Amino acid sequence: MKEQVVSFDSAGLRLHGMIGTPEGLRASERRAAFLVLHGFGSNSESSNVLQPTRVLNGFGYVTLRFDMRGCGKSEGEFGRVICLEQVEDLSNAQDFLATYPAVDAARIGAIGSSFGGAVAVYAGGTNRRLAAVISNGGWGARRTQISRPASHARRLGQVHENAGRGVRLPRPDRKIADGAPL
């Protein structure tokens, strides 16, 4: 696996990350990718991020592990953890990763552990662009972490609406026809 240091903007803050590309990736090839999210109190250098990153790269996926705002090497208020802000960071990371030459923008998923798993699940219910979500020990976002009760009800409705859409990513080196079984 080769890694490249990157940075991108989210809500006016500069976030730090590392893009990992699998061995054997050809110059013109586009692969499925994963955003690898850290948990509460950790960062992109933590073992709960490095291990899944290595596994996913080994399976042929491109990865972006990054420090959410206020964590690791990213800008932001240290210790401020608000679910919707991390969901915004995930969305901006997805926008950034979608422009990377080796990535198929329609096949980007998110994987996270602990708080990162909760962020991935929440984003998966509200962001139709995410192709897959994997949560390892994630916990649910509480109503108090969401700015307005009406927003909570609307977003919860989106989560329920999207729950049955269960999209799986095909093998990272294969493209499938729209609607074909995976």
Strand and helix map with partners:
Blueprint: E1 2-10, E2 13-21, E3 31-37, H1 47-58, E4 62-66, H2 83-98, E5 103-113, H3 115-126, E6 132-136, H4 149-162
Parallel strand pairs: 3-4, 3-5, 5-6
Antiparallel strand pairs: 1-2, 2-4
Helix pairs in contact: 2-3, 3-4
Quick overview:
With 182 residues, the protein is of the alpha/beta class.
Identify the notable features of this structure and list them briefly:
182 residues, alpha/beta, Rossmann fold, six-stranded mixed β-sheet, 4 helices
The outline comes out as globular
Q: Can you tell me the residue ranges where pLDDT is under 50 for at least 5 consecutive residues?
A: 141-147, 162-170, 176-182
The radius of gyration is: 16 Å
- CATH homologous superfamily heading: Alpha/Beta hydrolase fold, catalytic domain
Output mean pLDDT. Answer: 83
Helix content: 25-40%
Task: Give me the strand/helix succession.
Answer: EEEHEHEHEH
Total tally of structural domains: 1
CATH class annotation: Alpha Beta
Sheet-strand content, in percent, reads: 25-35%
**What is the CATH fold-level name?**
Rossmann fold
Q: Taking strands numbered 1, 2, ... along the chain, how are they ordered across the largest sheet?
A: 1-2-4-3-5-6
The largest sheet is:
6 strands, mixed
N- and C-termini, Cα separation: 26 Å
* Number of strand segments: 6
- The helix/strand class is alpha/beta
